[in-house]
Amino acid sequence: MRLRKEDGSITLEAAMVLPVFMLFVVFMASIIRISIAETALNKSVSETAEVIATHAYPATILTEQAKTIANSKLAGISINEFNLSDVEKLAGTTFREQFDIDISGSNFLQQLGSDVLSPLVKKKFADNVDSFAFDNSNIQVDVELPGSINGSSASYIGITATYDMDLTVPFVDRTITLKKKAYERLWVGGM
Length: 191
Hints:
Layout: H1 9-78, H2 84-91, H3 95-99, H4 114-128, E1 139-144, E2 156-166, E3 175-185
Antiparallel strand pairs: 1-2, 2-3
Helix pairs in contact: 1-4
């Protein structure tokens, strides 16, 4: 009986199994990367909505109090001849034009659009992930604002963030869009 030589059989088996194994490793790394981005985006949106929900009412009260104090000081100085809007007209500019803020409390929420909240969400996202592996400039933020803050009806702020992420899998040229939403009820003080 003649024995066959089996030189190179391990090389042949490795050549057949190694590409499948490497593809599996790359696929798993991509799944982990997507999971990290999804978790970070969810946490960023939730934390931003929570911060805005807890601070909107005190900021509104503060702006209303500032307006009341300014009007009372002007009334004391000018013997009720001027109020804050008259001073704004007299100065030739409004607080909004000068400081890019509106002094009325109801308009405070309207200033919290996506232009203001987008950097907050991006910063929280960058804090939660490695900035080398993820680009936070691919995040787009949309904000749903309540009409006003009052105790008569439930007011919710909604933040939606989308993150476009390129897949790093061989032979696949796709972009995945992750989308996360967070809704928080605004704190409106005690009734």
